[in-house]
Amino acid sequence: MSEKKRDLSFTPLTANTFKFRCYKGIQCFTDCCANLNLILTPYDIVRIKNRLGMSSDIFLNKHTDTTMDSHPQFPMVKLKMSQDNKRRCPFVTADGCTIYEDRPGACRLYPLGRAATKPDAQRNSREKFFIVNEEHCLGFKEDREWTVKEWLTNEGVDEYNRMNDQWLEIITSQKTLGPEKDLQRKIQMFFMASYNLDKFREFIFKSRFFERFEVESGLKNRLASDDVELMKFSFDWLKFSLFGEKTIQIKNQPSPVEETNP
After folding, report:
1. What is the pLDDT of residues 94-126, one digit of tens each?
2. Total-model pTM
3. Which DSSP category does 156 fall into?
4. Do 91 and 203 belong to one domain?
5. Whose CB among 59, 109, 124, 139 lies 3.0–4.6 Å from 49's, allowing a Cys bridge?
6. How many domains does the structure of the chain reveal?
7. Is residue 129 within 8 Å of 13, Cβ to Cβ?
8. How far apart are CA 55 and CA 3, in angstroms?
9. Beta-ladder partners of 24
10. What integer is the mean pLDDT of 189-202?
11. Are residues 109 and 225 located together in one domain of the fold?
């Protein structure tokens, strides 16, 4: 079945305020939840899979597709739409989003979009906001006015940005991945450490990882059960294993490339 394209455009947000309101009963309710090309971040996946009580493997197999078209170097994971003719988000019903408290960051941000980069060695990300214009959306005709800051806070976007910007630093890095012979192993490591935290947990706990790298005991205990801590650790690991950054301290093995085989 061919995917219907959404008719949308983007307008730079030049003012600090915009008008928008979405609610059950508005004529276009949940129309924005169909025909999505929604790239999921690692934090999106953590929140949703835990909400559903699924392992990483099951969630990825059931609810996502992998694409190489959205990034020049790394595989991205996108949410799989339902296969009926409406091609809607699988978590949306006539009553709205069934995972609303754990919905992806892009859904929280809508109807705003955010273009962001986090250059190497820069403390803060560079960001610009824009309005996502869709012909079907009637929310812009409502009289509720927001500042960007009010909207981000109200929708819980700030927490998602804090988490996602750590990963953004990796996927926008200008550093080389090294020799071509190591690329396939590094791409596999990127996929596992970014998206499949259950497998990443097995990788570090069922190998000689802790014999080779310095990890204090309190952190090691948290990595065993806390997915968010594990995710943040995986970002440090990716900076180390992909780019050779000194984000993890080696005990015995001097070569980061040798440690990037899943």
Report:
1. 999 999 999 999 999 999 998 877 666 566 667
2. 0.88
3. T
4. no
5. 59
6. 2
7. yes
8. 28
9. 26
10. 98
11. no
